[in-house]
Amino acid sequence: MYKEEFIEFMIESDVLKFGDFTLKSGRKSPFFMNAGAYVTGSQLTRLGEYYAKAIHETYGDDFDVLFGPAYKGIPLAVVTAMAYSKLYGKEIRYCSDRKEAKDHGADKGGLLGTKLCDGDKVVMIEDVTTSGKSMEETVPKVRGAANVTIVGLMVSLNRMEVGLGGKVSALEEIKEKYGFDANAIVTMEEVVDYLYNKECQGRIVIDDELKKSIDEYYDKYGVK
After folding, report:
1. Inter-CA distances, 149 with 37, 81, 136, Å
2. Is residue 144 within 8 Å of residue 94, measured between CB atoms?
3. What is the mean pLDDT of each run of 10 residues along the chain (224 residues)?
């Protein structure tokens, strides 16, 4: 089961950490995910394959472009496009935005990678979405570049907490605001269920004490 493999992969790669963390939103969280910790060739290869499997299972193969918002989304889009070719024999183009538009050369403009064309079907790809803020910047860029259809968004982890609106999850807020589905390879609920009192990488990752902290966090910030 690729979801269980992916949970172990996050722990093994030291990407999903447990402790005391202050998030960008100001929330104090007992867990933190840093997709920037995937740094080796083998890690990135496996990461692309997990994303490709999740996208294939969730959205099917009827799309043309993977769009990864700068900066972390760029390698995600690249490795997932490579994995898609390897696993499913389908050529998917990758695209990203530039933080600053390039004003010279044959590839000048605000986008990196493929050119977006009218009729393209696009899957957005990100590491984790807590507030949905990055979508505010990138969705208008994608829709403004050509007459495209955004099929959906895939992130690696759904934190399952309320977004900035304070009522529904960040992924639900994205769906409500932009009209496309937003999904994750795994949810935090699946992570906790799988890791609670289970040995992973030679240790118990989520013991009773940590489970209590996570439950308290979700009592405060979790999606009702």
Report:
1. 31, 18, 16
2. no
3. 93 92 85 90 96 96 94 93 96 87 52 92 88 80 94 94 79 91 94 92 90 93 81
* 66 CB burial (10 A radius; 0-12, 13-18, 19+): buried
What is the bridge-based pairing of β-strands 93-102 and 65-67? parallel
Q: Is the dihedral of CA 203, 128, 1, 40 positive or negative?
A: negative
- C-alpha 179/C-alpha 71 separation (Å) is 24
The closest alpha carbon to 55, from 36, 76, 71, belongs to 76
Give the residues across from 104 on adjacent strands: none
Q: Which residues are catalytic?
A: 102, 104
Q: Nearest Cα to 78, choosing from 38, 22, 134? A: 38
Q: Are 51 and 185 in contact (CB under 8 A)?
A: yes
